[in-house]
Specification:
It is a single chain. The chain is mainly β. It has 14 helices and 55 strands. The chain has a 22-stranded antiparallel beta barrel. A 5-stranded mixed beta sheet has the order 10-15-16-13-14. Helix 6 packs antiparallel against helix 7.
Length: 1019
């Protein structure tokens, strides 16, 4: 018993000693964490390794750790900084300075199926950051934000209708007359990128030459655009919120139609010119229209494009959260974008006819470190779009009017007599008109069209390090898209004035008021794709030898609605080698194809090789030209394919036949032929891809302590096997001309980029400029041997314009009799009409006199420059971009007074038409006025085709950041930015002000200039 008590006493003494020992040796450590500029860092992670204990620095950059024991390891980590680890030795204070992580700062370029250090890249690749896209303002598509920021990439926005504002993109001009659009790849998978939220994008890489694009083989001849979305980083949770509010208005002048009295007087002149005296307007009629007190219910003249266009609104919001730890890193984003109407249309009680689009974006990127050698990533994203429109905008081909569409008539028509809505609230129209002339009512009163779509992108990626330097990757991606359409039909009652303008008559006397009819929603579009990929990547460095090997295979299955699936398969290889960071070599190749090509032509091998020499790493350069900090020369050669020439036509290597029952009878006795079988378009049994043979030589350089950077690329391309319809098929062939892969073109040019960054006192400033010049020619397009040289396709630019050459205006009847005869003279020539060149000299102006007259309509020569400065928290930036070497056909609705759908057939414009020819004005810029369509003057010629070169102030932004102030005040937020920016603010062009030089033509939903105000918060 006594012994047991002794043991308990001993245990008690030992426990007390341990408690005392812990009290003595468990210490508290305090300190501050700063950067190399002695700025205190907020939110630095301070962890006691192996215990799970830790903290983060507060608003003063201070931390406190309790219950430390000597010998424990303390880790200090912060995003973008080098992690530091200290052994605790019992001290009370430890101040830590973290420096920037040089590995993180080293620029990395995203390439096909991987990443490379910029200094070792031998392909022609240009890259932009996601932040560059945000300077474009509140644009609704990524392609709009790309304008001007990268050399060799040209964008042109065809129209401005909400939901259809995406720009057309060309990389290094055009090398084919088939589809020239590049391949778009988002996070390694072929996808559309326009509906991404710019706040989700980490970087955009544009692959331009054979070395950069060869890994995509048969899809890459037009270039490749790679989009990489943001991922989380180890560190504290970071919250960003941005809000943008915008006002938008048309970039064009819409008041280009004269008042009606002026129109009537000039119509009389035109009628006199054509001896149509019986149709002249009386002075009494003109006086009634000039009377300021006239009854506007009967004497209105409505130019709808001017009447309806007004200011619109736009909004955009984004919330994203990112962060991570040793196990998981995350980036989550939610975005909303609203693009409103610029037509002055009101919401109705039973439906909404306004044209707008609402888009909701979401994304969740997760990266798990399952083990030290195993990583698993999940990327889920998508968008939901609600598009709303009306009778006119729903059928406007994305805002680009075609032919007699109602959107086109907005520019071609003015309603005479009745106003759009009378003082009594009646909806006005004109009597005896086959087409409804009240476009306001068609937009606002005839119903609503709705398109609701949703899209899902999902990626699952497993990366396993097998041994040091060898990594296996497996990727599975599933994507789908659905669109549902529905509509509401309304039938308003129209009224027109009675013959003596004393009242209104219902146009359709039998029509009764009725409620709008709701049409059921239906599945209008659906597609899905499944993609999987496996790869092995080996990277190692042995002494001065740096090399890597990539082997990859992938398959893609794409299906639209219920059509047969498209099947694609690729086998890809890459080998890179670098010696001493001076001599570089790279080989790329892809063996791929798809089932749309003819058997035996479905797969092909597309190789490339590239060499690089970093001259600045040579000792003699370092010794004698130390100012040359970086200078690299690179060259690439390779063959790439394009399957876009198929134009969506599948299995064209197969013959097709159709049948019908004939009503033809023959023979004795008479009997019917019965079923007749007819061969369709002849099969192209050798159907295959286009092949592009590309060469590129480029230099990259850095001078003056990295203040001046630049690059120059010279490129050359030959395109062969372009799919085309034969032109030299004999008449006795008995069918339409077959298609064949016979076309050939060539294209060459230069890309130049310069960047300057410097500082004067406390003012940082920068300038960036780029230019791309391209020239292409058709080499072969199956010209008939007898075709004159000037009419041959060969030797002309792709998309070349032909027409007659305008030599001026006939000044008198002698000119008409002495100049060559016009085969287009169906209504009679008079002095003041156009004179055309008789190019062939055969005495007749006809189709044989059409020669190349103007540049193509697409961009061949582009340039852009941007500049800006910052002082403390205030910054200003501006970007200009322009194009030259392109032309536009001036729409007849603008050019000719008789090209209109008004009842009188005459509508005078506030443009060159006012400077019309007359004996008193022989040097006029416009031909003599005509009251009827004039087939001679309307011919395509140098008169109606004009240069559409332009310079545009694309973006201007003023911004203020409160970061420094918030840090001093220990505020909860890390940063607050407020800004104002604008897009498409000013344009300088020789085109009339009623034309936007980028727009497809006059008759489009106008492109907008935007003024935005917003703020960005960071927690």
């Amino acid at each position: 018993m006594q012994r047991e008590k002794s043991n308990k006493f001993i245990y008690f003494i030992i426990l007390c000693i341990n408690l005392l020992w812990g009290e003595i040796y468990s210490q508290t450590l305090k300190g501050y964490v700063t950067d190399t500029n002695n700025e205190r860092l907020i939110g630095v992670s301070v962890l006691v390794k192996g215990t799970g204990d830790g903290t983060i620095t507060d608003f003063d950059g201070q931390y406190v750790l309790n219950n430390l024991k000597e010998g424990e390891k303390i880790e200090f980590s912060y995003v973008g900084m080098q992690t530091k680890v200290f052994t605790y030795k019992g001290q009370k204070t430890l101040n830590v300075t973290l420096s920037e992580n040089s590995e993180l700062l080293e620029e990395v370029v995203v390439v096909g199926y991987g990443q490379q250090k910029k200094e070792s890249v031998v392909g022609s690749i240009t890259q932009a950051k996601g932040e560059d896209l945000l300077r474009a303002g509140n644009v609704t598509t990524v392609s709009e934000a790309l304008t001007g920021i990268m050399p060799g990439v040209s964008t042109m926005q065809a129209a401005g209708q909400p939901g259809s504002t995406a720009a057309n993109i060309l990389i290094r001009g055009q090398s084919t007359w088939t589809d020239s659009s590049p391949l778009f790849v988002v996070d390694g998978v072929e996808r559309d990128f326009n509906d991404l939220d710019p706040n989700e994008i980490e970087s955009i890489s544009v692959l331009k030459d054979a070395s950069a694009t060869a890994v995509y083989g048969v899809k890459a001849a037009n270039g490749v655009i790679l989009i990489t979305t943001k991922q989380g980083a180890k560190g504290k949770t970071k919250i960003n919120f941005s809000a943008n509010f915008g006002i938008k208005s048309p970039t064009i002048d819409t008041d280009y139609i004269t008042d009606y009295p002026t129109n009537l007087r000039h119509h009389n002149l035109a009628l006199i010119n054509e001896n149509s005296f019986s149709k002249l307007h009386t002075q009494e009629e003109i006086a009634r229209w000039e009377d300021p007190n006239r009854d506007m219910d009967y004497y209105s003249y409505t130019n709808f494009i001017n009447y309806l266009l007004t200011n619109g609104q736009s909004q955009a919001y984004n919330l994203n959260i990112s962060g991570g730890n040793d196990f998981v890193k995350y980036f989550t984003s939610f975005g909303y974008n609203y693009d409103g109407d610029i037509f002055d249309i009101k919401k109705q009680s039973e439906f909404d006819p306004r044209t707008y689009q609402k888009r909701y974006n979401w994304r969740s990127n997760l990266d798990f470190n399952l083990t030290k050698t195993t990583k698993f990533s999940v990327k889920l994203s998508g968008d939901v779009k609600d598009w709303n429109g009306n009778y006119i905008t729903q059928g406007s081909n994305g805002g680009i009017a075609q032919g007699g569409e109602n959107l086109a008539r907005l520019y071609q028509f003015a309603m005479v007599g009745a106003p759009p809505i009378t003082s009594d609230g009646l909806i006005g129209t004109e009597p005896n008109t086959p087409e409804n002339p009240n476009y306001w009512a068609m937009m606002e009163k005839e119903g609503q069209w709705m398109r609701r779509s949703n899209r899902l992108y999902s990626d699952f990626i497993l990366k396993q390090q097998i041994i040091k330097g060898l990594e296996f990757t497996a990727k599975l991606s599933y994507n789908y898209y659905r669109r549902y359409d529905s509509s509401i039909d309304a039938k308003p009652i129209y009224y027109h004035p009675n013959p003596d303008n004393t009242g209104y008559i219902q146009k359709d006397p039998l029509q009764l008021p009725e409620s709008p009819r709701v049409n059921a929603e239906y599945l209008a579009d659906y597609n899905k794709s499944l993609y999987y990929e496996f790869s092995l990547l080996y990277k190692n460095k042995i002494g001065k030898h740096d090399f890597s090997l990539l082997a990859l295979m992938n398959r893609r299955k794409y299906q639209s609605k219920v059509s047969f699936p498209n099947l694609e398969e690729s086998w890809v290889g890459r080998a890179t080698y670098g010696y001493d960071n001076r001599y570089l070599f790279e080989f790329n190749g892809a063996y791929n194809g798809n089932e749309n090509f003819a058997p035996g032509k479905r797969f092909g091998f597309f190789p490339s090789v590239a060499l690089g020499w970093v001259v600045s790493e040579e000792k003699f350069i370092k010794d004698h030209l130390p100012e040359l900090e970086f200078f690299k020369i690179r060259y690439s050669y390779g063959e790439i394919g394009s399957d876009r020439g198929l134009g969506g036509q599948r299995y064209s290597y197969l013959s097709t036949y159709s049948s019908y029952n004939s009503n033809v009878y023959y023979g004795e006795p008479v009997s019917g032929i019965g079923t007749v079988y007819v061969e369709g378009t002849p099969a192209n049994v050798n159907n295959t891809w286009e092949t592009a043979i590309k060469q590129n030589i480029g230099i990259e350089m850095t001078f003056l302590k990295s203040r001046l950077r630049g690059s120059v690329d010279l490129f050359n391309e030959r395109r062969e096997g372009i799919l085309m319809q034969r032109n030299t098929v004999p008449y006795w062939f008995g069918n339409s001309a077959p298609k064949a892969n016979l076309g050939k073109t060539k294209n060459h040019g230069i890309d130049i980029e310069l960047k300057w960054n410097d500082k004067i006192g406390k003012v940082d400033y920068w300038f960036t400029g780029n230019m791309s010049l391209t020239e292409n020619r058709i080499v072969f397009r199956d010209d008939a041997k007898s075709t004159p040289e000037y009419l041959r396709q060969a030797g002309k630019p792709i998309g070349w314009r032909s027409g007659l050459v305008d030599l001026g205006l006939y000044q008198n009847w002698d000119d008409i009799y002495n100049y060559p005869v016009s085969s287009y003279n169906t209504t009679g020539l008079i002095p003041g009409d156009l004179i055309y060149m008789d190019y062939t000299g055969d005495g007749i102006v006809d189709k044989n006199d059409w020669i190349p007259i103007k540049d193509p309509s697409y961009a061949t020569k582009t340039y852009a420059f941007s500049l800006g400065f910052s002082y403390k928290g205030f910054s200003v930036s501006a970007m200009f971009n322009g194009m030259f070497g392109l032309s536009k056909y001036v729409s007849g609705a603008y050019l000719w007074e008789w090209d209109t759908t008004v009842q009188s057939g005459f509508m005078l414009h506030n443009n060159e038409q006012l400077d019309f020819w007359s004996p008193e004005n022989p040097d006029a810029s416009h031909p003599i006025l005509h009251a009827e369509k004039h087939s001679h003057n309307q011919q395509t010629s140098t008169y109606c085709t004009q240069s559409s070169a332009f310079l545009r102030l694309r973006n201007l932004e003023l911004k203020y950041s409160f970061r420094s102030l918030l840090k001093k005040k220990n505020f909860l937020m890390e940063n607050i930015e407020v800004y104002a920016n604008g897009q498409n603010l000013f344009t300088w062009s020789d085109l009339p002000d009623s034309f936007d030089p980028e727009a497809n033509k006059l008759e489009v939903y106008p492109i907008s200039k935007r003024f935005n105000f917003g703020f960005r918060l960071t927690l």
